[in-house]
């Protein structure tokens, strides 16, 4: 009975640890600020069509 209780507590601790790790790895992605290069007003990737419109 004692081994069962210790095993059950160990399994619960393992699951709780995995849940915490998964939450911590997801949080920074959602809160990551948008990177704006120096001298730019908005972050964006320019499309090939837009490059052609600009004459490059």
Low-confidence stretches: none
Helix content: 55-70%
Largest sheet: none
Ends distance: 76 Å
Counted beta strands: 0
Compressed to H and E, one letter per element, the order equals HH
Rg for CA atoms: 24 Å
Shape: rod-shaped
Structural class, by secondary structure, is mainly alpha
How is this structure best summarized?
The chain has 56 residues and is mainly α. The protein has 2 helices and no strands. The chain has helices at 2-31, 48-54.
Textual characterization of the structure:
It is a single chain. With 56 residues, this protein is mostly helical. It contains 2 helices and no strands. It has helices at residues 2-31, 48-54. The model has no long low-confidence stretch (mean pLDDT 77).
Can you lay out the helices and strands and say which pair or pack?
Layout: H1 2-31, H2 48-54
Can you tag this structure with a few keywords?
mainly alpha, 2 helices, 56 residues, 66% helix
């Amino acid at each position: 009975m004692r081994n069962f209780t210790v095993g059950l507590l160990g399994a619960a601790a393992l699951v709780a640890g995995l849940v915490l790790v998964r939450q911590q790895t997801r949080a920074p992605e959602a809160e990551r600020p948008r990177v704006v290069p120096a001298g730019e007003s908005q972050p964006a990737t320019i499309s090939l069509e837009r490059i052609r419109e600009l004459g490059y």
